């Protein structure tokens, strides 16, 4: 799923709820979780957006079993440290579970 298709899906999910702001939040969280999977987890696998009655679930599966960690954001050298903070701040909850065949699934539950 590309950022464009994530935006379309998130917009469709948001139409029945909060609209564009929720769609923008979902796209931002998708971008951060996928980027973190690529940079820190050795690649990314399936991305799922699921509508639940009171939230939208963003789930990114990755091959690394390493848990995400909070880092101090780097304001000098531009090496990051913002994504996991941002995902946690925007989500109602973030949950990391082992994947079905190794690795892990990182989920963010976003308000609708």
Strand order of the largest sheet: 1-2-4-3
Largest sheet: 4 strands, antiparallel
Helix content: 25-40%
Mean pLDDT: 82
Tally of DSSP helical segments: 3
Strand content: 15-25%
Topology pattern, helix = H, strand = E: HHEEHEE
Number of strands: 4
Question: Over all CA atoms, what is the radius of gyration?
Answer: 14 Å
Based on secondary structure, the structural category is alpha+beta
> Which blocks of ≥5 consecutive residues have pLDDT under 50?
none
Straight-line distance between termini: 21 Å
What is the overall silhouette?
globular
Topology:
Elements (H helix, E strand, L loop, with lengths): L2 H13 L4 H21 L6 E5 L3 E8 L20 H8 L2 E6 L5 E8 L1
Antiparallel strand pairs: 1-2, 2-4, 3-4
Helix pairs in contact: 1-2, 2-3
Describe this structure in words.
The chain has helices at 3-15, 20-40, 83-90, and strands at residues 47-51, 55-62, 93-98, 104-111. Helix 1 (3-15) packs antiparallel against helix 2 (20-40) and helix 2 packs antiparallel against helix 3. It has a 4-stranded antiparallel beta sheet, with helices on one face. The longest helix has 21 residues, at 20-40. It is globular, with a radius of gyration of 14 Å. Helices cover 38% and strands 24% of the residues. It has 3 helices and 4 strands; from the N terminus they run ααββαββ. The chain is α+β, with helices and mostly antiparallel strands and 112 residues long.
């Amino acid at each position: 799923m590309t950022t464009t298709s994530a935006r379309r899906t998130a917009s469709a999910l948001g139409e029945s709820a909060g609209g564009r702001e929720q769609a923008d939040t979902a796209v931002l969280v998708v971008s951060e979780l996928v980027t973190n999977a690529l940079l820190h987890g050795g690649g990314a696998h399936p991305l799922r957006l699921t509508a639940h009655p009171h939230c939208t679930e963003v789930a990114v599966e990755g091959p690394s079993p390493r848990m995400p960690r909070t880092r101090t954001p780097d304001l000098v050298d531009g090496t990051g440290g913002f994504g996991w903070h941002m995902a946690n701040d925007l989500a109602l909850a973030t949950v990391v579970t082992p994947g079905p065949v190794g690795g892990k699934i990182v989920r963010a539950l976003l308000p609708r």
